[in-house]
TrEMBL record:
Any single GO CC term annotated in Swiss-Prot or TrEMBL for this entry: plasma membrane
Taxonomic superkingdom: Eukaryota
Subcellular locations according to the entry: Membrane
Species in which this protein is naturally found: Parastrongyloides trichosuri
Pfam families: ASC (PF00858)
Segments traversing the membrane: 63-84, 800-830
Membrane-topology annotation of the record: Multi-pass membrane protein
Protein name (database record): Amiloride-sensitive sodium channel subunit alpha
Similarity comment: Belongs to the amiloride-sensitive sodium channel (TC 1.A.6) family.
An example Gene Ontology molecular-function term: ligand-gated sodium channel activity
Key words of the record: Glycoprotein, Ion channel, Ion transport, Membrane, Sodium, Sodium channel, Sodium transport, Transmembrane, Transmembrane helix, Transport
Amino acid sequence: MTRREKTHLPTMSISRTSETSNMTKISLCEKYYGRTSKTLLDQFADDTKMLGFRYLHSRYQKWFRIMWSIFLFFALTLTIYQVVERISYYLLKNPLTSKRSFENLNEITFPTIVICNKMQIKSSKVASLDPKLLNFMVSMFDEENKDEDREKIMENIKNFDNINILEIYKYSHQSIEDFIVSCQYGRKKQCIDNVNIIFTPNGICFKISPNITVLRAGPESTLSLLLNLETYDIIPGMVPEPGVILSIYDSNYTVKRLYDDGVHLEGGKLVTIPINDIRSLERHPSECSSNDNGNKIENYSKQECEWKKRSKNIEKNCNCSNLITPKKRKYFNNISDNLINSRINNISLPDCTLEKEYNCVNKINNIKDIEDEECLEDCIDIRFNTIVFGNELDLTEVSKLLPVNWEDEKEKKIKEFFKGIDLIPKERIPIIRSIQKLSDEGKEFVNKIKEILDEFKYINIINGVNTRNISYCDSVKNPNVLMTIFRDINNEERIWGSYKIYYDYVLKPNIEWLLKIFESNEKEIDYENGVLEIDLLEKSLNSPEKLFGLKSIPMKERELIINYVINLIKSTKDCYNDWKKDINKNETINFSLKCKKTFNKSLNPLKIGREISEIITTTKIVDNFFNMIKNVSIIINDVVGVNGAEIFKYKNYDIDIHKFRNNYGEDGKELGIIYELLKHRKLFQSDISQKSAEIINDIKNLIKYREEFFINNNKINNRKEILFLNNSIECFTNFSNNLQSLKKIGFLRSDWIIRLQREVTTTQSYSSGPEFDKVNLLHVKLYFTHIKRESIINVRSYNIFLLLAEIGGTIGLYVGATLLTVAETIVFLFENHVKSKNCVLKNNINIDDF
């Protein structure tokens, strides 16, 4: 063998064995390189170091090879999935992570406060400029408009195309002096000079920048704001929920960042807003407003971006420049007398007319989603963590903050307000509509209860009636019907009055001791007293015609009662004798229970007779029922009478605010009538219905008990009086159902009187008295409880070393095994490729050289 052969000849014993044993002719390449007829997979299985891949060799059975193929495929797939999942987690799903830090600050600049009054246009101002415009705007914002009303609005709205809406808006909003009555920091420092007007997506707002450094947290560093909301001067329907929107911003924010929504606050409140801490978020440049170099864009604001896009969308669809647009910001920011007559430059499109503002702009503003691409987030976002506490306004505390001429200012404001309200149709004034709604609910109740009470025509007449000539339901309307029927039954049967006397004064005293015996749980009791009472009761039956009560009962009914008493005596004695014969004292209690059951069963007919007597001879429930009806009738007549309450007579919004305020104020003459009616509210809601149910129950029990008492007389309830009572049950049921329907009426709800008092307070606020302050003023206090800050910075969540460590630590076994297999496969394929290439080259070599 040559040196060349020693160098390149593989040491594969299988090839040499095959050559010597089979004695087949082999090719030059097989002889030189040791090639055999083995498949590529078999060679790979022989050469690989991986245990699992060796089982793919053809020497193993087919099912075994398939099983290992599936297992190896699953392992390889899992490896690929784990690698892809780890990489996608860091590179795609969570490319950023947050770093948090907390610090206590020694000092901090007081934040900027922005307050926007939802009432952007005062009705009194519009009335002084154009009364017809005010009247039309009131009809525009009526939510109850019907289709024909909307068509009429669309026809009339074109008459106002020549009106400059921008000038109306500019002239009609509140000034700083109107809105902010007092601005004070700490105890003495005034901050009214730090208030400026800014223009935002919410309209004209007021920015308060105290420019004060807070050195110590606590109430002593409180910013106190007293605001005059003037809720009475709102154009009806234009503002669904009167109030203000208060927002807190970092003092370093530019005006363009002051556009976020805040918290809604209402008038008549003392609102305390403690600032607990500050949360600062710094986003990664890839997630916020930054240029291609990764630098932050100066003066960028996401809110302004969205505002601009929405305005562009309006301009595109409406072909005009709407009223609330960023292009008109300079016109309102820091507005002063010098800017009143200024013009807006750089606006190529014409201003939207009132028609376009109503038909086009409002529709687009109601669309929440913007079709254009989303605006980027702000790179730095600072939020103040606050809690809002609300209480009733303290007029004593507020009085210290009011200016000296405040009463005169209120007089002027109210005078201007009534000039405008006189031009508004009464059906569109919110307070008038609220009062009319209260009146409608009250009238609904009064009319319904009167309709029910009108059927009680004979409520005050006491006389007998002929049951043959009346309907069954007259038993509900006429108090004489049931009394007559019960009296007729009692007179014809002549048993119940006397039986009641016999039961109460003869029978009952003799059975009370027996009841006491049978209810006892003691094993040894002196039963002789009970036996003595039974003996006395038995002896009394020897002369029943002499017994008190029993002697007045007719013979036939008397015998029935005597039989019931004899049965009671006999069953009780028999049980007692069995008891006495008992030797086993442990069974005493069992005998006691048995005798008690026997005693009650025998006594039951006698008790039933007593119940029948009670129903027929007494009319207490019926009397109570009709007495309640009488009381209700008197109260309702007082309410709707000549001297009744006017609130139950209001029609078509014809309501005098001043008169309403006087009648239903704290000392109002008609307020007592309302309280008297509501004081008896329980009568309508439950008491009368309960008495009606008791009457129904008595009638049912009367019919049932008579059948049980006269056990051998099946025709006892065929009397015409009993049939009448049975049919009257349905009438009482229907009457109760009608009363129950009153519960659904708003007047009987507990909040009706509260709503009335609220409307009275509102009408009282239309004066210069303290009620004006109670409704229209809002006192806001802001202070720091802690001077601390939480900083959150978004950074890349990975680097190359972290990614490799994650992959290696999580799926190292899979990756290591797979990489080893891949490396072996590459080496194997490379060697096979080299062998094939060399084989072709050696075909031209003389075989003798080998």
